[in-house]
Amino acid sequence: MNRKVKGFLAVLALTAFLPNVASAASYEVVMGDSLYTIGQLFSTTSGRLMQDNRLSGTLIYPGQKLEVPAAMYTVQSGDSLYVIAKKSNIALDALRKANGKWDNIIYPGQKLILPASGQKTTLSAPAAAPVAAKAAIPYTQNELDLLARLITAEANTQPHLAKVAVGAVVINRVQDSRFPNTISGVIYEVSGGFYQFTPVENGMINKPASEPAKKAALEALQGSDPTNGALFFFDDTATNKWLLSKPLALRSGNMVYVY
User: Fold this and answer.
1) Which end of the chain has less Cβ packing within 10 Å, N or C?
2) Report field, pTM of the whole predicted structure over 0.90
């Protein structure tokens, strides 16, 4: 085999594992979107989106398809959304948002949009970007909202202490090398074929966060941990022997937290 053919085959093999570079992709508008938030997701501006889509104003509607600057990725065997986000250097929640993909089912050959041309991104308004100076871990406004939505789904009827403790468990996992190192990574993790948090599996994670949950999430992110390091929680009707065998960290309302 001559050198030119070998070089061509080497390049061909390499490109199979890289995102398909594209100048634009089609994004479907969902409820709550604006040109500003879509621009944030894809690292562009409202004006550029208006120009590229020949819009005469800023009004958009759910279901509308917009051309956005993004690369496309072809799912490979063995991929997961977490793996794709990590190797593409983008936030998992941004990957989900760009593709309207809130479950974890993907298949080889499927095309996914890589938001912000593969760069790290947040889905936030201007106030979302700063990281709290005394935060237990770095976070964006979007991650704060995600954590608050988990707290709402898991402990909305529970005492404030229980709500803060749910947030603390997520933060403790982020800080533990056995778990993903981001809030979205922890919350959306699927281990051994099982969702780590039931609201992700049943879709309750997508419900808006309550105000008490938002306050509890912020308190946890600012370092409050009434569990002193717990990594798991469940309600007091649980019968899982593995969970029940773990050392008790805290009981609050109907919630139990263990190490």
Assistant:
1) N
2) no
